[in-house]
């Protein structure tokens, strides 16, 4: 008899709970239908049919409470924030974030935690760190990498109630490691910094560089520039100028200002790379395009002045050699048929490029240079120096004829060029 009474009581309680559950949802469709409608709303959103998604979500949120349709609350928050379908409304955005976060949306938990962490207006007047911790921690437990990163920063910047500084850093490290496992670059950089500085852990430069390299390989310019510094100075790795410049060029190619400035300096000085003032100028001008300030503009001007001085010296030496040869030599060859001193010097000159000049009729003034470039980097360097000479008006004009492919044509013209120089 007592057993039957117990069973009866269980049935009565079960019926009571089911009745209350039914009352809380009114006349809403069964859960299976709500899931179908929710997926349909999300599908409308994905395809850009925002009005349909909004209408369907609004209807679902009117009929259901919380957990079953919190993803619709995510959409409502987004629509009110961005002004999609409805007018922008920050208060409604905040309201729907709170709703979705309460019922388990990791995205809304993260966004809500971020608002409390930063004290973002118009929602708050100042940060609320306990509330930030609450929501970021909930999202972190669900594997939200941005929440894990921000929670790690929360511990790293000593915003928690943890009194022990070392333990706070270790708590940060745990969160950063979770985010780093998902490829979060900011977390990788923080971990590298923690091991480099020994924040709550023993200094470990090998680990520090391992995390830094991972971030660099993922394409982060900050990590690439730091890798350059480590390889150029031998911090935690063997000093290697080739690897250093590899990472520096990677970062500069992404318009990272510090890298552009540093690469310009290296090319100008010829440090770690072959000196190339033209490339130094390119990266200096790139730095100005990123941040136009007097210091960087002056650096561009300094490199230009240096290139101009080089071009003046180069052109002056060529003219001096040519004029000297033309006055001191009256024949193109010695009596033995071997090249004379003029020809030897001329052949040396045209190993990089051949240069001839025309004298203005009646005065003998040199007024332009004709340059025939032999294939290769030296020929281009020769040509560029003459371009600078024209730019500073050392020369009136120049002509460049470059044949980088057909060497036979060059060889056929070589003797004519030598004779032209030495017969003047």
Question: What topology does this entry show?
Answer:
Blueprint: H1 2-25, H2 31-46, H3 50-63, H4 70-82, H5 90-102, H6 106-118, H7 129-141, H8 145-156, H9 165-180, H10 185-197, H11 205-217, H12 221-233, H13 241-252, H14 257-269, H15 277-290, H16 294-328, H17 341-349, E1 353-359, E2 366-374, H18 377-391, E3 397-403, H19 407-422
Parallel strand pairs: 2-3
Antiparallel strand pairs: 1-2
Helix pairs in contact: 2-3, 3-4, 4-5, 5-6, 6-7, 6-8, 7-8, 8-9, 9-10, 10-11, 11-12, 12-13, 13-14, 14-15, 15-16, 16-17, 16-18, 17-19
Describe what you observe in this structure.
The protein is mainly alpha-helical. The protein has 19 helices and three strands. It starts with a helix and ends with a helix.
Q: Low-confidence spans: pLDDT under 50, at least 5 residues?
A: 5-31, 325-337, 350-367, 398-414
Output the number of helix runs.
19
Strand-pairing-aware structural class: mainly alpha
Distance between the termini: 134 Å
Instruction: Give the neighbour order of strands across the main sheet.
Output: 1-2-3
Helix content: 55-70%
Number of strands: 3
Strand coverage percent: 5-15%
Overall pLDDT: 77
Largest sheet: 3 strands, mixed
A few lines on this structure:
The protein is mainly alpha-helical and 424 residues long. The chain has helices at residues 2-25, 31-46, 50-63, 70-82, 90-102, 106-118, 129-141, 145-156, 165-180, 185-197, 205-217, 221-233, 241-252, 257-269, 277-290, 294-328, 341-349, 377-391, 407-422, and strands spanning 353-359, 366-374, 397-403.
């Amino acid at each position: 008899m007592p057993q039957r009474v117990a069973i009866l009581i269980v049935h009565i309680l079960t019926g009571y709970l089911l009745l209350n559950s039914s009352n809380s949802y009114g006349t809403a469709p069964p859960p299976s239908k709500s899931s179908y409608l929710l997926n349909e709303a999300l599908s409308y959103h994905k395809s850009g049919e925002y009005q349909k998604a909004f209408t369907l979500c609004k209807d679902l949120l009117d009929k259901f409470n919380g957990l079953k349709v919190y993803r619709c609350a995510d959409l409502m928050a987004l629509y009110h924030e961005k002004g999609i379908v409805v007018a922008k409304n920050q208060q409604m955005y905040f309201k729907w974030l709170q709703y979705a976060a309460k019922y388990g949306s990791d995205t809304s938990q993260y966004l809500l935690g971020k608002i409390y962490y930063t004290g973002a207006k118009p929602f708050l007047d100042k940060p609320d760190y306990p509330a930030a911790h609450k929501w970021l921690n909930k999202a972190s437990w669900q594997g939200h990498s941005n929440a894990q990163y921000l929670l790690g920063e929360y511990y790293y910047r000593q915003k928690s109630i943890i009194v022990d500084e070392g333990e706070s850093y270790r708590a940060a490290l745990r969160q950063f490691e979770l985010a780093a496992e998902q490829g979060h670059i900011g977390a990788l950089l923080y971990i590298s910094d923690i091991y480099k500085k020994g924040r709550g852990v023993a200094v470990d430069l090998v680990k520090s560089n391992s995390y830094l390299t991972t971030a660099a390989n993922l394409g982060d310019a900050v990590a690439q520039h730091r890798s350059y510094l480590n390889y150029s100075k031998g911090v935690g790795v063997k000093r290697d100028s080739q690897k250093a410049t590899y990472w520096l060029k990677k970062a500069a190619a992404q318009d990272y200002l510090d890298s552009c400035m540093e690469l310009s300096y290296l090319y100008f000085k010829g440090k770690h790379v072959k000196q190339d003032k033209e490339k130094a100028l390119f990266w200096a001008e790139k730095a100005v395009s990123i941040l136009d300030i007097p210091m960087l503009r002056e650096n561009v001007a300094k490199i230009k002045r240096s290139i101009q001085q080089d071009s003046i010296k180069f052109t002056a030496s060529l003219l001096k050699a040519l004029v000297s040869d033309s006055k001191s030599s009256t024949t193109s060859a010695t009596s033995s048929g071997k090249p004379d001193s003029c020809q030897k010097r001329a052949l040396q000159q045209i190993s990089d490029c051949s240069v001839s000049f025309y004298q203005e009729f009646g005065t003998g003034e040199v007024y332009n240079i004709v340059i025939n470039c032999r294939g290769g980097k030296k020929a281009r360097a020769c040509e560029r120096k003459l371009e600078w000479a024209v730019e500073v008006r050392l020369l009136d004009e120049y002509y460049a004829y470059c044949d980088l492919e057909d060497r036979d044509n060059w060889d056929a013209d070589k003797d004519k060029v030598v004779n032209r120089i030495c017969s003047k």
